[in-house]
Each structure stands twice: as C-alpha cells, then as structure tokens.
Amino acid sequence: MTTSGFRNPSVVVIGAGMTGILLAIELEKAGITDITILEKKHDLGGTWRENTYPGVACDIPAHMYTYSFAPNPEWSHRFAHGDEIQAYFKRVSDEYKVTPKIHFNEAVTESSYQNAKWTIKTSKDKTYVSDFLISATGILHHPAKPNIPGLERFQGKCFHTAEWDHSVPLEGKRIGVIGTGSTAAQVIPEVMKLGKKVSVFQRTPQWIVKVPDTTYTEEDKKKWRKEPNLLKRFHKWYTFAVEQTFSKAVIGKKIPHMLMSFLCKRNLRTSVKDPELRKKLTPNYRVGCKRVIVNSTFYDAIQKPNADLVTEGIEKITEKGVVTKDGKLHELDVLVLATGFHPFHFMRPMNLTGENGISIETAWKKKVQAYRSLFIPHFPNFVLMLGPNTPIGNFSVIAMSEVQTKYVLKIIEDWRRGKFNSIQATEEALHRFAAYLKKGMAGTVWLGGCQSWYLDPDGDPAMWPYTWKQWEKEMKTPDYNDFSLTTQ
Ligand code: NAP
Predict the structure, then answer these.
(1) Which is one Pfam family of this protein (predicted)?
(2) Closest Cα to atom 33, ligand 1: which residue?
C-alpha cells in the first residue's frame, strides 16, 4: 500500500530494450516503485545493441523514432545510425534512472503463475516473485540462419548480420551476402566499399523507395536545442506523413498505394541503367507485400564493378563458397547471412507456464496469437509487449510501444485500486479479436503473392489490418468485458 492508498504492485519486465526502458519510465511516473528489469545481455538497447553491422541505421526518420517525451536535437541524419540510437537509449535510461533497475547478464529461464503471483527464475539461479510479468523482448531478435546444405562446411568466415564479427577484415576480400531485405540493403553498399568482389545472393527482389538521408548541421541542432517544441512538431509531422503514405498503402488504401507503387517503380527505373539488371531487380508482387525498403544507396552499390547480383538459386555451400543451381562455384572469403529473424519466437525459449500448468508451447500450439496483441488467455497478469498483430509495417515501433504501455498502465492502475487481483483475456475475446483481424486482412497488400516475415505458418499476416488512428482509438481504454477477473 502506498501513501495514496493504492496498492503498489511488483512488476518484472523482461528485456531492457526500447520497450523495457519505456515501461520502467511510465510505471515509475505512475508511482510504481517495485520494478525489476531482467536483461539477458551485458548492456541495454536490444536491437541497437545487437545490430552493429556496417551501415546499420533506422529507416524511420530519426525525429519520429524517439520517445514522444524525449525529443533528441542531436541526431546527425534524417535516418539515425545504430550507434547514435544506442547512445540515445542509454542517455534516456540514465536520465530517467532506469539503468539501476536493470539486472544485466540475467536471462529469464522460466516463469510460472500461481495464486496471482509470477515466480521468475533466471540464469543466475535467482528467483523473483511479482504481481505482474511483462515481456518486452521485441519481435526481431532470434537470428534466422538459412538451412542450406553444406553451410557448416564453409572454411571462410561466416556470420549473421545480427552477430557481426568485427574481428574479420573485409578489405580486398571476396564477400558473399545472402539476402536482400532491409538489413542487406544497408550492409551491401558498405561492404562494397571494402571488398574486392561482393556477390549478392538474391532469392526474391524487393521494392525500394528512395528517401534522401539529409545530414543535419550544427545550426539545425542549435535551433532544436533552443526550441524543443520544433522537434515535437517534427515528430507529429513524420508520424502523420508515414501514416498517410506507407501505413495506408499497405492496408490497401488506393491512393497511398498508387503513390507508393509509383515511387518504388520510378526509383528502380531511374536508378538502374542496365535493363537486364533492372529486370533481375524487379519484384513480381505488389508494393508493400514485403516490407518496403527505405534506402538510397543499394541501387548505386549493386551497379558498381565489384558487385555481382546472383539470381540463380543456391544449391549448396562448400568449403570454398556458394554453389548455385547452374553449377557455378562463387568462391568466397567471407559469407554474410542477411537472412532475417524468427518473428514468432517472442519471449521464448524461456518456459512460460500459466494457470493450471499450461505452457506457452501448448497455448500457442495451433497459432501464435494474443488478445489486442498483449494478453494471452490462461496467462493472468502477463503482458506480451509488441505481440502478434501489433501494427508493425513501416511505422515507428516506439509509437506502438507507447500506445500499448498506456493501455497496460490503465489495467495496472485498476489493479492498484483493488478492482481485481488477476486479469486475463478470455478465449472468446481472443477468437473475436482474431476474426476481426482476419476480416480486415482481405484488403491488405500482405496477401499480395509474396512470402515475408509478416506471415505466420498458416499464411496469415501477423499485422494490424486497419489504420493507425483506428488502432490508437481502440487501444484507448481496456474493455473489461473481454477479460476474466478474479478478486482473491
Ligand atoms: P528479411 O526482410 O526477412 O530478409 C531476409 C532476406 O534473406 C530475404 O531477402 C530472404 O529472401 C533472404 N533469405 C532468407 N533465407 C534464405 C535462404 N535460405 N536462401 C536465400 N535467401 C534467403 O530480414 P532483414 O533484412 O533482416 O529485415 C527484417 C526486418 O528488420 C525488416 O523488415 C525491418 O522490419 C527490420 N529492419 C529494420 C531496419 C531499420 O532500418 N529500421 C533495418 C534492418 C531491418 P526471400 O525474400 O526470398 O525470403
């Protein structure tokens, strides 16, 4: 009980990335003091700690990719570089006194629920007991390595982009990159500056929109330091612009989709001179079906004399390099796997056990899903931040976390007032929510004839099929009819 008369819950947050830091700040602002953050690695930052590959940057405008309450006048470019973003999260975490709450190098191994409490065990053999358990592990943090025969036989250096080995020199080397997604589009132009030859193994071409990466001057930064309101306006403006273009285009709104298609097609036509190469780089699916890549350097790089775009499928990998289906051996010194992530693992491999001993593996056996992307039936007082169908796409994931955090805080506030001791979404509400999502999917471009990490094993996009505004509106207030509450 606090002096205000409200109960003070204990909250364990898993992960000290962007969402974990945000949660700690907002919980503290609400007067909650018993907050523990368990972080598996030695540092905070999540994605931005893990991804240090050459060229790593955010393809959401920097002034949009900030917490709404912590504008940053120091961004050097329109698209902030990875190290700057990492520094930003560290600074905010220090400023808001989140860092001392983080237990580093402590991975959660199992969590189980009983009698309105979570018991959490960690890799340090410690046990924590809490009223709420919140997973803030993010979506894209389990590197997906390709299942290509012979990969383990390769005698050169081989690593995934999220596990970049900076001890490997690239100067004058023959480098292979498997993949042509958002990550590859950032990596390839950088390794091309160093490598003697860079072979890009493309399975599927991608749509790319060009947005110039403006460099901000000292004058700009001075102005923004003096007038933080300008930055808040920037934040609003970019949010509006991205919503009106990218976000509406992918859910099938005609004019935004025509505009995005025009921009991508024009970019390809005007950037790539050789018609043969252009043909190889032309996707055969609708713009936005895979996440649209925002990039202004890939097309230039792939036309350089030391670039080789390989579109023959990969047959196998040998000690010396990659053999394509035409029998050609592409000899390599370094092989980079820009092959993406497993987006449906979420907080796993930890063992999560809800009421009556139900495991998350059982609960998700048929489908990985969550009510309002946050709550899983039979897992009371457990929240999965950025869960399936969070409106990902080309929008700022920070904005999504902020909306979800407010929603969760409303629920925790009601717990504090004694409205309930435990809360879980009902099966019925989950099914209704799933049907509502399914209905919206029909008009989207994600079913536009491509394979992407957006699709779950059933081929259903784990996305939000309506507008951002609609999502914000529906996430304003929890509807307790959709939950089962207990008061003991
Ligand atoms: P991705 O979009 O999933 O791309 C993976 C690439 O690897 C694809 O080109 C895929 O080909 C290829 N691939 C996978 N397995 C393969 C195999 N066995 N053989 C040949 N090719 C294979 O992954 P990502 O580029 O890491 O991006 C994932 C997401 O991370 C992005 O969509 C974005 O949300 C986020 N991201 C964001 C930024 C940013 O700036 N904010 C930067 C990087 C990444 P197919 O297309 O044929 O499957």
Answers:
(1) FMO-like
(2) 182
- Tens digit of each residue's pLDDT (9 = 90 or more) over 310-328: 999 999 999 999 999 999 9
Count of structural domains within the chain? 2
Question: How remote is the C-alpha of 381 from its chain's centroid?
Answer: 24
| 382: phi then psi, degrees, rounded to nearest 5 | -115, 135
Give me ligand 1 centre to Cα 191, in Å.
17
Joined tokens for residue 87: 């520094």
* Domain end position, chosen among 283, 318, 337: 337
Q: Atom 35, ligand 1: which residue's CA is nearest?
A: 182
Mutate to test the pocket of ligand 1, among 161, 183, 284, 285 (most ligand atoms within 8 A of CB): 183
Report yes or no on 2 lying in a domain.
no
* Domain identity same for 361 and 231: no
184 with 305, same domain: the answer is yes
As to burial, measured by CB atoms within 10 angstroms (0-12 exposed, 13-18 middle, 19+ buried), residue 84 is middle
* Nearest Cα residue to atom 24 of ligand 1: 340
Indicate if ligand 1 lies below 6 Å from the C-beta of 183.
Answer: yes
C-alpha to C-alpha distance for 55 and 110, rounded to whole angstroms: 36
Decide whether any atom of ligand 1 lies within 6 Å of the 59 Cβ.
yes
User: Which tokens sit at 3?
Assistant: 């002096």
Asked if residue 258 and residue 286 are part of one domain, the reply reads yes
288 in the same domain as 177: yes
| High-pLDDT (> 70) share of the chain, % | 99
121 and 84 in a common domain: yes
The reply to whether ligand 1 has any atom less than 6 angstroms from the CB of 314 is: yes
Best residue among 309, 339, 390 to mutate for probing ligand 1, ranked by most atoms within 8 Å of CB: 339
Beta strands in 328-414 (DSSP E): 329-331, 334-337, 351-353, 382-384
* Domain edge (last residue) among 271, 303, 337: 337
Residue 339 · residue 178 · CB < 8 Å: yes
Domain limits for position 50 = 10-141+342-486
Q: Which of 190, 199, 203 to mutate to test the pocket of ligand 1 (most atoms within 8 A of CB)?
A: 203
pLDDT in tens, 246-299: 999 999 999 999 999 999 999 999 999 999 999 999 999 999 999 999 999 999
CATH number of the domain that 300 lies in?
3.50.50.60
Q: Does 445 share its domain with 474?
A: yes
Token readout for 107 is 């991975």
Q: Is 58 in the pocket of ligand 1 (CB under 6 A)?
A: yes
